[in-house]
Amino acid sequence: MPSTPAKELEIFHNPTPSRDYLIHMEIPEFTCLCPKTGQPDFATLILDYIPDKRCVELKSLKLYIWSYRNEGAFHEAVTNRIVDDLAAALKPRYLRLTAKFYVRGGIFTTVVAEHRKSGWKPLLAVELGAFENQSPTRC
């Protein structure tokens, strides 16, 4: 039986809730409709989140994203709605969605929306030294 779009997001328990770690997803096939013209708008969505107790199941995320295909929505509204829905389902420590819309009328639009769990503070980044490019031979 073929899959159909759905607004429900399936979650599963975070296998390592004691650690902050980043989940990065790139979704290059997002489509919705322009609410003014009805023409399709295409975007690549970049989802980064640090889970708390829950993670999103990938197939349900795909079907959720697919559910916007025939909906009219302004770029800003649809990006924030997706963040709100993901934040409600996952209750993550941190979530950022970057929506990079393809050109429309000579204008590229990028919308970035974030959610932070109240009281959560990121750990300081560890800066590692970089190695110089190695020559294939040693001199």
Automatic annotation (TrEMBL):
InterPro entries: GTP-CH-I_C/QueF, NADPH_dep_7-cyano-7-deazaG_red, QueF, QueF_type1
Key words of the record: Cytoplasm, NADP, Oxidoreductase, Queuosine biosynthesis
Residues annotated as the enzyme's active site: C34 (thioimide intermediate), D41 (proton donor)
Main location: cytoplasm
Location relative to the cell: Cytoplasm
Protein origin, superkingdom: Bacteria
GO cellular component: cytoplasm
Keyword NADP: yes
EC number(s) stated in the UniProt entry for this protein: 1.7.1.13
Pathways involved: tRNA modification; tRNA-queuosine biosynthesis
GO molecular function: preQ1 synthase activity
Residues the record lists as binding substrate: V56, E57, L58, H75, E76
GO terms for biological process, alphabetical: tRNA queuosine(34) biosynthetic process
Catalytic activity as recorded in UniProt: 7-aminomethyl-7-carbaguanine + 2 NADP(+) = 7-cyano-7-carbaguanine + 2 NADPH + 3 H(+)
Free-text function comment from the UniProt entry: Catalyzes the NADPH-dependent reduction of 7-cyano-7-deazaguanine (preQ0) to 7-aminomethyl-7-deazaguanine (preQ1).
Annotated PANTHER family: NADPH-DEPENDENT 7-CYANO-7-DEAZAGUANINE REDUCTASE
Family: Belongs to the GTP cyclohydrolase I family. QueF type 1 subfamily.
Protein name: NADPH-dependent 7-cyano-7-deazaguanine reductase
Gene: queF
